[in-house]
């Protein structure tokens, strides 16, 4: 990452603009499609338009997740550069030495780790909670909402109404939480 503040600002703005654009797209498409239309399209009994709109909703959801994660990664790396949080790169690759070092660095920076399972690497949203920007319950919710992309990939084989309702609910919940997540992530930008 560059130490150039204007480059960092430009990347932040790019992610924020994309999130706004995708949330707006999600809202427009879901208003036209509705839950019943999504369920019909999921089960292949919808109209061609409903099937197209279902794909648009799924793409918007995917892009919102991608940009939220990229924004957090960007600002977390910058916060590490400023000495505010441990190096998130220590957690890549799953090495026990990297994980141990991350937890030691977190404690050294005054991050409360007393109630954490230090035998596990904290993922993005768990780290955001450890930094104090969201509560742990919301972090757990975000883990479920953003990891549902994997569920979505496997759910296509399950063309049931129940599966369709779950997918719709997850996507709508992430859309509803998007601004709260952005606000929490942007707190990391403050020196």
The averaged pLDDT comes out at 90
Order of helices and strands: HHHHHH
In the residues, how many domains can be counted? 1
Q: What is the approximate shape?
A: elongated
Low-confidence segments, given as residue ranges, are: none
Structural features, described:
By secondary structure, this protein is mostly helical. The protein has one domain (5-189). Helices cover 72% and strands 0% of the residues. The chain contains six helices and no strands. Helix 1 packs antiparallel against helix 2 (48-81), helix 1 (5-42) runs antiparallel to helix 6 and helix 2 packs parallel to helix 6 (161-186). The protein is elongated and about 55 Å long. The mean pLDDT is 90.
Which characteristics define this entry?
elongated; single chain; 191 residues; 72% helix; mainly alpha
What is the element layout, followed by pairings?
Blueprint: H1 5-42, H2 48-81, H3 96-108, H4 124-130, H5 136-155, H6 161-186
How would you concisely characterize the structure shown here?
This protein has helices at 5-42, 48-81, 96-108, 124-130, 136-155, 161-186.
């Amino acid at each position: 990452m560059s130490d150039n503040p204007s480059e960092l600002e430009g990347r932040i703005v790019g992610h924020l603009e994309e999130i706004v654009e995708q949330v707006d797209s999600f809202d427009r498409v879901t208003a036209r499609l509705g839950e019943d239309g999504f369920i019909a399209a999921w089960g292949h009994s919808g109209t061609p338009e409903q099937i197209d709109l279902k794909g648009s909703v799924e793409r918007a959801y995917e892009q919102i997740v991608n940009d939220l994660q990229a924004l957090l990664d960007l600002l977390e790396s910058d916060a590490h550069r400023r000495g505010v949080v441990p190096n998130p790169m220590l957690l890549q690759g799953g090495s026990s030495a990297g994980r141990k070092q991350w937890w030691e660095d977190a404690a050294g920076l005054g991050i409360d780790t007393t109630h954490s399972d230090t035998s596990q690497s904290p993922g993005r949203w768990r780290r955001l909670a450890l930094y104090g920007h969201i509560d742990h319950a919301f972090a757990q919710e975000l883990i479920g909402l953003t990891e549902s992309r994997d569920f979505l990939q496997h759910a296509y084989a399950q063309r049931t109404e129940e599966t369709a309702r779950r997918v719709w609910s997850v996507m709508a919940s992430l859309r509803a939480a998007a601004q709260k997540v952005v606000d929490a992530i942007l707190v990391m930008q403050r020196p």
